[in-house]
Each structure stands twice: as structure tokens, then as C-alpha cells.
Amino acid sequence: MSDESAASDESAAPGTPGNPLKLTDPRMMRALAHQARIAIWSHLGLRGPATATECAEIAGLSPSACSYHLRTLARYGFVEEDLASAADGRERPWRARMLYFTIEADPGQPAATGVASRLLVENLRAAAEENRARYVNRQSEYPADWQAAAGEMFSVAHVTPDELNQLRERLVEVMAPYVRLEPAERPPGVLPVRILLDFFPWFGPEEAR
To answer: How far is CA 12 from CA 1, 42, 50, in A?
Structure first.
């Protein structure tokens, strides 16, 4: 799942890894820009269908409150009911419907869109930071091979804007085979890992003029 620009495959369904949906509706952005909804949406995307009760445990909510957040996410196309995966007629599982999207800066966009996009990005980054802090606090409890493989890398690239776009697209292509959203595609031993890539200028705006 991503909030970064990515190469698009128009033959793929909108919101899938090959065809990320470009978010421009501030109402849609605000619908997801809630920490509990981010947690619920991420859980459904990573772990597969789950009921409101199961999602409530992840988000730290009551099942009724979680049902409200699920309906809100469904209203804007992020999730949908998945009755086909129900174990019996009483269960109402939900699944992620839209998993990949882009939020692109546009100097001409309405102020409300800019505010909503910043809120969503900030809360997605906050969720990522919670994930990082949780790992750091319990790092010694993880198996040695996971400790050796996980971590952070800091680097710099000297590029033109076009080269930076090319770099982003190549990284997306490299990661694509490892996304494996369908459980059947995952080999034994696979577990979800969060990947966060930053592409921020290490220079002031006056240097780009």
C-alpha cells in the first residue's frame, strides 16, 4: 500500500498495485485520514478478510465503533463486505477493495484538497512511525535472521526531476514481485514488512530556480 507515485498499468483494476488510484477528492482523503481507519484498512489489506469484531481488536475499539468506521471506509471505496468468505450466515466479513493510491502535489489544487492530503499523509506517516517504534522497542525478541534483515538505510541521490521519477518507477518495479497480496502467492516463511521510501529535496527551493 502506498501514497507515492507509481508506474501505472491501466489494464489492472483501479487501486491495485499495477494501477494506483490518484486521490483528488478531499472527502475521500479525510475518510481514510483517521488513525483507527488506517489501522483497519491496513489490517484488511495485509491479513485478508475480517469481521468488525476482529478489526476492533486491531484498532482498539468496540465492535460497534469499528462497524461505523468500516461503513465510512466502504462509502468511499476503501473496503467492502465479503460475504463469500463468511464461515456462517451470521458473520459479516470485510475486505480491502482499494489498496494502492497516489497523492500528487498540484500547486493549482483547491485549498481544501491540500489540507486533506497533508492530513492523510501525516497520519499515514504517524502509523509508520508507530510500527518502527514498536519494532525498535522489541527488537531483541525477534529471531536473529529478522533482526539482521530489518532496519533503516540512509542515503542521497544527485538527480534531475526526470531521473528521480525514473528512480521511483524502478524501485516500484523491483518491489512489485514481493507485494503478494494474495495469500496463495506467498511462499512459506513470508511475513508482512512495511517499506517507507522518502524522496525529499536536500536543498532549498531557491537552489532549484
So the answer is: 15, 21, 25
- Residue 94, H or E segment: strand 94-96
How far apart CA 186 and CA 95 sit, in angstroms, is 18
What tens digit of pLDDT does each residue of 16-44 get? 777 888 899 999 999 999 999 999 999 99
Q: How much is the pTM?
A: 0.81
Asked if 100 and 3 touch (Cβ cutoff 8 Å), the reply is no
Which pLDDT tens digit goes with each residue over 167-182? 988 998 898 888 887 7
> 62: which 3 cell numbers?
468496540
Q: What DSSP assignment string belongs to 17-34?
A: TTB-EE---HHHHHHH-S
At a CB cut-off of 8 Å and minimum separation 6, what does 71 contact?
none
Rg (CA), the chain: 18
